[in-house]
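Supplementary Text 2. Reproducibility record for the structural model of the 249-residue chain.

All settings were left at their defaults, and a single model was retained for analysis rather than an ensemble. We include the record here because the model underlies the residue-level annotations in Supplementary Table 4.
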Amino acid sequence: MINIKSNREILLMKKAGRIVALAHKTAKENIKPGISTKKINDLIENVILENDAIPSFKNYNGFPAAACISINEEVVHGIPSKKRILKDGDIVSVDIGAIYKGYHGDSAWTYACGKISEAAKALLVGTEASLFTGLEMAKANNRLSDISHAIQKYAENLGYSVVREFVGHGLGRNLHEDPQIPNFGLPGRGPKLKPGMTLAIEPMINLGNKEVKVLADGWTAVTRDKSISAHFEHSILITKTGYEILTKL
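Retained model, structure tokens:
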């Protein structure tokens, strides 16, 4: 069942989303060669806690950290570590969630560490653009898969591939709610979008092939061909006239 949020719930989700955006601001400012992913995670967690919120991901199904930090060929769910030191040329996907008074915000962004390759720059630009191309279809009376199809078409037209195993989702009181939102598929399928729906749209786009695998830690997903991958996500509200981004300052 897809939950339609009340005005009160929407206000709380906007607060949760703003806290997530503040944490991303801190992450972006600190991503540079020589810093560990554990240090970035700790900075993110501090922002969340200082704003009277709780990290959504910490202890979620056993995940050990406040943020997922994935480097280069790591697609999602990278575990922060003191031993993972960022290098010049890395791309770093940071996925952050926060719970404020029982409601979640969720956003991911991929950042450049130092000077990155032209191919990496293009992938970041293209993946972010695929997110916003999908969001153009996030309006009342469109079908859910209209978002999915727009993302896939945009990314594949650039020569990239779309990860199938991990998808977007509804959110609210729970981090993951109905519906699941793939980043691929035919248009005109699935439920109609209605005002009051809150959704996390999150394309994961690979420079190479779409196939991924999960490492022995049980969390970190990587591209099978070791090509780099980018991940961009916003939580949004469907409105009467379109959509509103919840995870921004």
